[in-house]
Amino acid sequence: MNENLANGNHTLTVYAYFTDKTVSPIIDIIITVDTAFIPPKPSIISPLNQTTYNTKEVPLTYAIDSKIFHSYYSLDTTNYAIGRIEFTGNTTLTNLSEGSHKLRLSLETESHSLRTYECFFLIVPFTVDSNQTIPTPTPSPEPAAQPAIFPPSLVFVASVGIALAAIGLLVYLKKRHR
After folding, report:
1. How far apart are CA 89 and CA 109, in angstroms?
2. What is the pTM of this model?
3. In this predicted model, what pLDDT tens digit does every residue of 70-105 receive, in sequence order?
4. What H or E segment, with its residue span, contains residue 174?
5. Domain layout of the chain by residue ranges
6. Best label site of 80, 82, 120, 157, fewest CB within 10 Å?
């Protein structure tokens, strides 16, 4: 693997060697390298990570240095795809039940001028106890949770691995149909 690719577009061509001794390109992938790109850094300002609130209405406030195309959250669900709610900007979580909660926030952003998109997932556990006498904390601008951002080399290796697996499957299926 070459980790020192120059900025710009590079083509990765995958060839298949068939049992009849022919060689054919079966996948062409264009990879763009942009070493100046700094990915957006989203953070949840509220609710604060592992904090107890004495109210059943907790603000959902986040910050990100990129244009947002879609934002979703889910609360206390294991199936994010079914339980998610789309919202715009910051909002308030209302009618919260007493006890522990887990907020999952998903932000889809435009990552840079090439108009590719990234999706960030942030998870924040918090608790509602409206009987507590301690005042609800005021959110600070410090991030409570950070997303996992994968390095470009790992994304490249994963892309090549997927391409090779697809090739293997194509070769296997071609051999079975002979």
Report:
1. 13
2. 0.54
3. 888 888 887 766 778 888 888 999 999 999 999 888
4. helix 152-176
5. 8-36+155-176, 43-128
6. 82
CA–CA separation, 57 vs 128, rounded Å?
Answer: 9
Distance CA 98, CA 126 (A): 11
Tokens of 37: 């790109």
What is the CB neighbour count within 10 angstroms for residue 160? 16
For the chain, give the number of residues.
178
Chain position carrying tokens 């499957």: 169
- Domain with residues 43-128, CATH architecture: Sandwich (2.60)
**Nearest-angstrom CA–CA distance, 125 and 104:** 9
- Asked if 84 and 106 touch (Cβ cutoff 8 Å), the reply is yes
Sequence-ordered list of residues with C-beta below 8 angstroms from that of 16, at least 6 positions apart, any chain:
23, 24, 25, 26, 167, 170, 171
Q: Which pair of tokens denotes residue 169?
A: 């499957």
Q: What is the pLDDT of residues 11-36, one digit of tens each?
A: 888 888 888 888 888 888 877 776 66
Query: By the 8 A CB rule, do 149 and 109 touch?
Result: no
- Cα separations (Å) of 71 from 16, 64, 81, 119, 135? 41, 11, 13, 9, 29
Note whether 20 and 175 are within 8 A (CB): no
